[in-house]
Amino acid sequence: xxxxxxxxxxxxxxxxxxxxxxxxxxxxxxxxxxxxxxxxxxxxxxxxxxxxxxxxxxxxxxxxxxxxxxxxxxxxxxxxxxxxxxxxxxxxxxxxxxxxxxxxxxxxxxxxxxxxxxxxxxxxxxxxxxxxxxxxxxxxxxxxxxxxxxxxxxxxxxxxxxxxxxxxxxxxxxxxxxxxxxxxxxxxxxxxxxxxxxxxxxxxxxxxxxxxxxxxxxxxxxxxxxxxxxxxxxxxxxxxxxxxxxxxxxxxxxxxxxxxxxxxxxxxxxxxxxxxxxxxxxxxxxxxxxxxxxxxxxxxxxxxxxxxxxxxxxxxxxxxxxxxxxxxxxxxxxxxxxxxxxxxxxxxxxxxxxxxxxxxxxxxxxxxxxxxxxxxxxxxxxxxxxxxxxxxxxxxxxxxxxxxxxxxxxxxxxxxxxxxxxxxxxxxxxxxxxxxxxxxxxxxxxxxxxxxxxxxxxxxxxxxxxxxxxxxxxxxxxxxxxxxxxxxxxxxxxxxxxxxxxxxxxxxxxxxxxxxxxxxxxxxxxxxxxxxxxxxxxxxxxxxxxxxxxxxxxxxxxxxxxxxxxxxxxxx
Length: 572
Known about the structure:
Elements: H1 10-15, H2 27-31, H3 48-56, H4 64-70, H5 81-99, H6 105-114, H7 119-139, H8 147-166, H9 173-190, H10 193-210, H11 217-232, H12 250-257, H13 264-287, H14 291-315, H15 325-343, H16 356-372, E1 382-383, H17 389-398, H18 402-415, E2 418-419, E3 422-423, H19 424-437, H20 463-468, E4 491-499, E5 504-511, E6 517-521, E7 530-534, E8 541-547, E9 550-551, E10 560-566
Parallel strand pairs: 1-2
Antiparallel strand pairs: 2-3, 4-5, 5-9, 6-7, 8-10
Helix pairs in contact: 4-5, 5-6, 5-7, 7-8, 7-9, 9-10, 9-11, 10-11, 11-13, 13-14, 13-15, 15-16, 16-18, 17-18, 17-19, 18-19
């Protein structure tokens, strides 16, 4: 009978030092700034000598992946070299790149350690590693249809299925919560939108069961971020389930109880919680019967935003936030939230024209963030959480000043990022279509200036000024001599149906209500495109522009189909 292995974390056992066995990470490792690689299962028979031998064989990564291969929980399913490689992709690329925007230990520590003892989590990380590697192949020119790409996709589907199967064995709600976040990230990347909604709903339910405490804090933060991400990207085939989502999350309550912020991770999650409440505002007001209730909801949100800004001022008083990724990330999403608050949720699309200062700030912050992001030597960065794409796409959609709009689209083309279900290249293509439908032109020559320095430097405002100001930002860009897009030509909303695996988008555009009947001609490359658009001041006329082959994989000619009707969508 094999003897039981020694106790202690993997790192301390390899180093032959006494381990205090604190969990999830031992104090000996963390105090010496080493990465604690967690613990083997209690029934493991792996010796220190075997762990050390595995570590010596590694050329790039640490011992966790190889150590796992020595003690598969289900002995009949030993990890293969392929699965070890995919786990290492997740550990060394996916997790760090995801946590680089707003810091989090969930991806870089907690989920990795959970993979030691939970086969469901192990297989979930393999699926994410396969999807990340497939993403890299696409940007290397080995996209849809390539045998390597298809093999990785098959591997991702198999690992996801195994993770769901093994989930039946996980009974602890805290562990199930972490697993649900990994599964949600997988379905976001695969484009399995209805399953993503299931995992989001499950995440909120599991957090309620597990309770909010030290063990669930990191997972609760990630749930808030991924939930907001889902609200910003609602596929028409599976719209976000507003009826099933809580009106507030743990971070909203916590921020009313604490006097100060503890970290940029907490500050970022609190900001995402405020943005989430803003996006739920319309749904909340529709469900509310009284005018006083509406005013109270809005007033509470505004007070909480000002309180958060005051806490940020105290938090950064003795810190240098300039050009650091965490502070820049928070300022980017703060500018987006403040811009949306200033614009309001309703009104003509022309109301956005007065917010050029916000659009300038968002673009400059995004460009600074991009230039300060560490070079990971990969062709296309990859993250499971929201990052640069959402604020910049919002700028493309709402900013009708052609200079800023072209700058935003060129930036999306340049960064080649994947952030959850958001693709920067896909967002850029959709933004170009919106610009064309609104009668503006995106010049491909703009891409030749993609590496030019930003024409504007950010003018910093103190957090106290934000908390007490009127919400207006001065702009360096002017409308002087620039023709404005008529209200009746403006796109109010976009609806998408995304085939993630094929890198294709079906795009539907909802036009701003107007009064006139007019003819708009859109010329596709093959010369088609006579489009009749009817507007009414009494009914919302929905015009669907279905670009059935906006393909990111390879350029093709375009076919445009238009449907119009009173408050109805096209058949099918």
